[in-house]
Amino acid sequence: MEGVRGWRRRETVHQVTDARPSLSEDIGRRERNYLIKMGIRLVCLVLAFTVPAPMAIKILLFAGAIFLPYIAVVGANAPRGGAPADPGFTDPGQNEIPRHRREIGS
After folding, report:
1. Where in this protein does the record put region Disordered (predicted)?
2. How far apart are CA 90 and CA 96, in angstroms?
């Protein structure tokens, strides 16, 4: 009986901690991150116009107000959980249409 166990493949055991967060949790996290970055941008913009500071600090505040929207949008649109951006991407050597991409009648 010992020899029989040796050739069997071990079953993959999935744990709950390995699962990706739900879509609603992921969207909520993205929205919070976006709103935090936009809040920081607003603070930078207000401080750049109202605080009597040296020009170097004002330039840093303006740079934050200019570049934070780009960083926030890119972060909010990043694929969830490291998944590829295009789930329909096919391998160049693929000979068959993937099952989820088949059309009616094919």
Report:
1. 1-22, 82-106
2. 10
Q: For residue 54, what are the domain limits? A: 24-77
Give the global pTM. Answer: 0.57
Q: For 59-84, how does the pLDDT look when each residue is reduced to its tens digit (9 = 90+)?
A: 999 999 999 999 988 888 887 665 54
Q: Are 68 and 41 in contact (CB under 8 A)?
A: yes
Q: Residue with structure tokens 């391998």?
A: 91
Tally the domains of the chain: 1
Q: Got the DSSP string for 66-78? A: HHHHHHHHHHHTS
Per residue in 5-27, pLDDT tens? 555 566 777 666 667 778 888 88
Tokens read off for 77: 């649109």
Residue 61 forms part of a structural domain? yes
Q: Is residue 42 part of a domain?
A: yes
